[in-house]
Design brief:
This protein is an all-alpha fold. The protein has 2 domains: 19-158, no CATH class; 188-266, no CATH class. It has helices at residues 9-13, 23-59, 61-69, 83-112, 118-156, 169-186, 189-198, 204-209, 211-225, 231-270. The radius of gyration is 25 Å and the shape is flat. The two termini are 37 Å apart. 20% of the residues are buried.
Length: 271
């Protein structure tokens, strides 16, 4: 009979608890977390339906302001009898998911945490919190900076020609969601660089050496996600992306410094 070997120190110290659960216990735990997450989304969606109309009015401020500035009225249209109702329902669901997301992430954390080292738990928390903050920071930047300028440009582009814009609420909110979530995803760049640096795929020296190529790539991405053809809007997209890239270089340097310090401590421990 093979020697089972010494017990895992993680089980002795309570640092690692996942091995104590059987497969069916894991399934039961997963089922419980899914039920809690679904219930929280359902309850939050009910609240979302209540506040959906004020939220829609708030999201419409950039285009309404641009319409007023262009002397084109201040109303959006819908072309289907149930168009606005469908939009309210969709907005309520979106708000429900957004409001319940912290609790859902907490449920994911409760399911994963027992199977992680303490340092892995800290690393995961250190990854999730900045990612969420950067994403919502990107949404705020897009709403207060990009959307107002973009709406002014698009609504004045028609000039003095015989054309009058009739903007559908459905199309406007599709465009708005694309811009908000697109910019929010772009703001995750420092987190992506953090992960790549953690695995040794990139270094601060590599990032700085290829800065010119990064600017070219950023310009291409900005040209793709910019919904208007003017250079100013593209620059509005590019400037925060370049700044985030520079922040990413700092993050990469911080990760590299931490790895070198751990290696030095490990060598001192050996000696």
């Amino acid at each position: 009979m093979a020697n089972p070997g010494p017990p895992d120190n993680r089980q002795i110290t309570g640092e690692f608890e996942g091995a104590k659960m059987s497969f069916f216990e894991h399934l039961a735990e997963l089922r419980l977390r899914i039920i809690h997450s679904a219930a929280s989304i359902l309850l939050a969606a009910c609240v979302g339906f209540v506040v959906a109309k004020p939220v829609l009015a708030f999201v419409a401020i950039p285009v309404v302001t641009a319409l007023q500035d262009a002397g084109l009225g201040d109303k959006l249209i819908f072309t289907h009898p149930a168009g606005y109702l469908n939009l309210v329902i969709q907005t309520g669901l979106y708000l429900g998911v957004a409001m319940a997301s912290p609790y859902v992430l907490y449920q994911v954390w409760l399911f994963m945490a027992p199977g992680l080292y303490k340092r892995e738990r800290k690393a995961l928390l250190g990854f999730i919190v900045p990612a969420v903050l950067l994403f919502f920071g990107g949404i705020v930047f897009a709403y207060y900076v990009i959307l107002p300028y973009m709406m002014r440009f698009l609504l004045t582009f028609q000039g003095s020609g015989p054309f009058t814009p009739l903007i559908s609420v459905e199309e406007y909110f599709k465009l708005t969601i694309t811009v908000l979530f697109g910019v929010g995803a772009v703001f995750e760049m420092p987190v992506l660089i953090f992960v790549l640096s953690l695995f040794g795929i990139v270094t601060p020296q590599f990032l700085w050496k290829n800065f010119r190529y990064a600017i070219l790539l950023i310009a291409i991405v900005a040209a793709i996600i910019t919904p208007t053809p003017d250079a100013t809007t593209m620059l509005i997209f590019m400037v925060p992306m370049i700044m985030l890239y520079l922040v990413g270089i700092g993050v990469s340097a911080f990760v590299l410094h931490g790895k070198r310090r751990k290696e030095a401590n490990a060598r001192e421990g050996v000696h």
